[in-house]
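REQUEST FORM: STRUCTURE PREDICTION
Request ID: SP-0412
Submitted by: Lab K.M.
Chain count: 1
Length (residues): 254
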Amino acid sequence: MEKLISCFRKRPDAVARLICFPWAGGGSIHYARWGNVLNNSIEVLAVKLPGRESRAKEPFFENMQQIVDELLHVLLPLLKEKPFALFGHSFGAYTSYAVAEALKKTHNIEPVHIFLSGASAPYSEVRMNAAKRSDLSDEQFLEWLTSIGGTPPELLANQEVLRLFLPALKADLHVVENYQCVRPVSPFLSCPITCVDGKEDVPHDLQAWKEITAGDFTITMLEGSHFYLKDPRNERIILDFITKNLEMSGMDYL
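STATUS: Completed
RESULT:
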């Protein structure tokens, strides 16, 4: 459990759990600290993938199925205990989708809410036609990374840090760029889905996410580009929305 999950504040009496999936190349700390901010009704579990943080010596996963298999093996008992929601930004949105699909189709379990950020639906034409980045040279890759914003300039200028950071980012992009996903014929979920995105990010096909659920579906656009959620004002909006929806979902579950 500790190998896969960062949990800064354990809350056994929480109404619901929030499972957070990192963006490409990301770690667990950004989300884990949400556990110190959200109230006692929500326990935050932030996922740590191989090749970073305390798992730095482990080889990167090569495909989405490896990620799903590990997560379900470790988390399934917890997900049966009480209501849970999923949050994922960019690469994390695709991981959220893959996990939700496996949970529903294999175990007939689904979240009480899914929050998807900064990504087109995996089966949408926008995503299918997106340029592949993981095979770019380091120089081209850094140019693209600079263009989307969100990465501190001092990090991009530090060759030693880049040597550690770029492999994880490219490995995650390789996973998502090779993730094959069939457009659902009909919704396989019933839970609400909320999509959030930055107004200045490249356009994403958010509406296509509606096809996976028969439940409520909403889209919220906030100021900023791809990493809009790092802005403290946007983060507060997101956390307030998560709190409101999970507390209500937990009451409905009882």
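NOTES: Residues 232-253 form the longest helix (22 residues).
Reviewed by: T.R.
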